[in-house]
Amino acid sequence: MILGYLFLAGAIVTEVVATTALKFATGDGNKVVPYIIVAVGYIAAFVLLSQSLQKGVPLGIAYAIWAGVGVVLVVVISWLMFKESLSWVQVIGMVLVIGGVALLELGAANQHQQ
User: Fold this and answer.
1) What 3-state DSSP class applies to 24?
2) Torsion of Cα atoms, 36 then 40 then 45 then 51, to 10°
3) Which of 57, 87, 98, 108 could make an S-S bridge to 52, C-beta 3.0–4.6 Å?
4) What is the pLDDT of residue 29?
5) SS3 (DSSP) at 66
6) Can you give the residue range of the structural domain that contains 65?
7) How many domains does the chain have?
């Protein structure tokens, strides 16, 4: 199962890189490299996500972690790299997303122990 979570971490990283590259792909249509990063990143993310499922990570848990952590990381990267605004309400939202993902994981862990 540890290997499954390593694949999931790889899926998150590649998805975040691909999503961040979207910012560089906007505007001038002559920028080919960002589009290649986006395509390769998303393909890699889905391949790695499927590998995490094959290694035993439950679908609902994998998707919640992938989506939740990905969203939070993209928001933080957008704030740091692109100086996009980040309000306290958004920070609270990120905390709630992380809390929700943690509760889903905790609920799954408790279900396996029964």
Assistant:
1) helix
2) 180
3) 57
4) 64
5) helix
6) 2-113
7) 1
CA pair distance 16, 30, nearest whole angstrom:
23
CA pair distance 8, 82, nearest whole angstrom = 26
Give CA separation, 41 vs 13, 29, 35, 53, 82, in Å: 9, 19, 10, 18, 20
pLDDT in tens, 51-94: 999 999 999 999 999 999 999 999 999 999 999 999 999 999 99
- Look at residue 114 and tell me whether its pLDDT is greater than 60: no
The pair of structure tokens assigned to 52 is 């995490």
Residues 30-53 have pLDDT tens digits of 778 999 999 999 999 999 999 999
pTM metric for this prediction: 0.89
> What six digits make up the tokens of 73?
């990381």
Q: For residues 27 and 17, what is the distance between their CA atoms, to the nearest angstrom?
A: 18
Supply 70's token pair. Answer: 């990905």
Measured distance CA(50)–CA(62) in Å, rounded: 9
Pairwise CA distance, residues 61 & 74, whole Å: 20
Instruction: Looking at 1-87, list the stretches that DSSP marks H as alpha helix, in order from N- to C-terminal side.
Output: 2-25, 32-54, 59-82
